[in-house]
Amino acid sequence: MTDLKLLLVYPPQWIPTSPFLSVPLLAGQLRRAGFDVETLDLNVRFYNHILTADHLECCLSRAREIYDGLRMTLPEKYPDAAARFDTFTPEVKTELLRYRKLDAFLSRSSSELERASFFAGNTARFGSGDDFLSLDEIIERTEPACAVLRDKTDFYDPEKLFDAKMIIQEALKIASLPYAPNELIWDNYFCSPFLPMDWVNIDRLCRDPRYNMYIGFFERAAAEIAGKGFDGVCVSVPDLSQIIGAFTIARILKEKTGAKVYIGGNYITQNKKDFIRHPEVFLDYADGLMTGDGELSMIRLAEHLSGDRPASDVYGMLFPNGSGGVSEGPEAPKLSMNELAPADFDGYDFSLYYSPEVVMPFQFSKGCYWGKCAFCDYYYGQQCFDIKDVGRACDEMEHYGKRYGVTHFLFIDEAIPPSYYGRLAREILDRGMKVSYYSFARLERGFTPETLRLMHESGCRILMWGYECSAPRLLKMMNKGIDAETRLDIMRASHEAGIWNNALFIIGYPTETPEEIETTLSVIKNNRDFINSCTPSNFSLKKNAVIMENAEENGVLSYSPKGEFYTVYADEIVGISQERRRDIRRQFHLDFITENRDRLWPVVYSDFDNTLLYLERYGLDRVAGYRSTRAICPMFR
């Protein structure tokens, strides 16, 4: 075929409990086409690197050095910083915030990290009964805590599991300290709020070792990669949380290897228009940017690197045109999900992930079968809906079981039609497959008690329902396309079938009143008998959302970018202000956690893999009914 060697890289930051699907999915298409492909999950390897005692000790020592230096210079240089803060440049504000974060963490007694850092306002004792943990104790306990998350016995002891997760939460703060105010947590990565996500700041952050915690690790990784003789390296960027990691590794690989470097993924697609305005990206970071679905475009890219196609033939690729501008390849034809190769996880070391059993991501469809929700930007750059045949989908799940020993799945689709779920459940049962899974779902009448019972019998353990809000008029504005009156009946039937219900809802949608918000919050609080957990979010105006087509008619008065590469706008709407929305959500979160502090997962963001494994092991009644003798549930960030 060809001697071409390709490397597919998944960069930080993403939740390190299981592999992300994008790289294995592309690897499957390329390998079936005969190309030599290797994969590298730098995300999980980076977490493994930083969550060690040696690394944390170095971080703490370095943070103290930085803090001592700032303490000697900044108060004298900016004696009236508090009074004049708003007059400073973003760079000065960032440096002052750096000092403040280090001061808040390190000025406490080195032998006393208050338990309140785990629980805001909660005085419960920790683990063995200590009120306080020293920084040294956190460092000492970090590696054993990581071992708990992987241990097939300790993981299923909730007291040990939640203690371990809280230790890791604090360890990540220590690992991030030298790079403050930038911070890596379990499920996100934050940069200075004073530096907008414009290209000049992205470029700066990708080069500056004062604020970029990835550089040293990536340089060592690039040295290993350089020795393998790859012709092309492709970096996947699904989310904003990965932009600094992705562009940092791309820059280093372009500098230190002879490979052509390409960056692609949903985040690149969402910001395609902005990247076209910045041809300088192609100087130090990438030879091309890949937009749209990658399954077909990656084959053409490999053919281009083999010398069989010009760059202009590569679907969706942005590339320099030689005249200082950017050209774009043709739009890819519609994918047929039945014709795609299965995702290929060969070469993955599942033992690196922070879970005793891998929960494998699985995709049935492209696009969304509803595709009309006004607040959503999922449809941007996506093809129209297509879904695999049920038989084909079950063939693939059986393949993963035989090849990788995997029986637990996350269905990553935005939503799967209830009629399809009924057919899928029957096929799983007819084949005698032993699987468990969880998924997003729409609260549609088609989820009848019979369908839900069948789904549970086939292995469905969690459904993440888009409840959104209580007010029927707002659901109509959202173009949600569901019956407001039947939603609670569906979730009640789901619970009776043995399925854990998670309700996702939005606070502060345009025109929403405080009374309507309170009604929604009351529904969540007052139906804990069958709403097992929730995921609250404050309304965010996404720049590619459907609502932007008729923003003013939908209650959006004005908006402005937080940075050209930031996917959420600062907005002014009819209704609750952006700051107030955030405060309401945070207060609800605080109150809800406090009220349910002895329960497992009352509020869920990134713990669904853990919850699935617990439900499969213990069942709904035991997990939902678990009560700790102490405050077990960690406070939000």
List keywords for this structure.
637 residues; alpha/beta; 7-stranded mixed beta sheet; 6-stranded parallel beta sheet; 22 strands; 15% strand
Q: How would you sum up this structure, described in words?
A:
The structure is a single chain. This protein is α/β, with parallel strands linked by helices and 637 residues long. It is 42% helix and 15% strand. It is built from 23 helices and 22 strands. Helix 3 packs across helix 5, helix 6 packs across helix 7 and helix 9 packs across helix 10. About 3% of the residues have low confidence.
How many angstroms separate the termini? 51 Å
Q: How confident is the prediction overall: mean pLDDT?
A: 93
Shape: globular
Q: Report the major sheet.
A: 7 strands, mixed
Compute the number of helices: 23
Given helix and strand content, the structural type is alpha/beta
Q: Strand percentage, roughly?
A: 5-15%
Q: How is the largest sheet built, in terms of strand order?
A: 2-1-7-8-9-10-11
Q: Any low-confidence stretches, pLDDT <50, length ≥5?
A: 109-130
**Helical residue percent band:** 40-55%
Quantity of strands, as a count: 22
Q: Any idea what the radius of gyration is? A: 25 Å
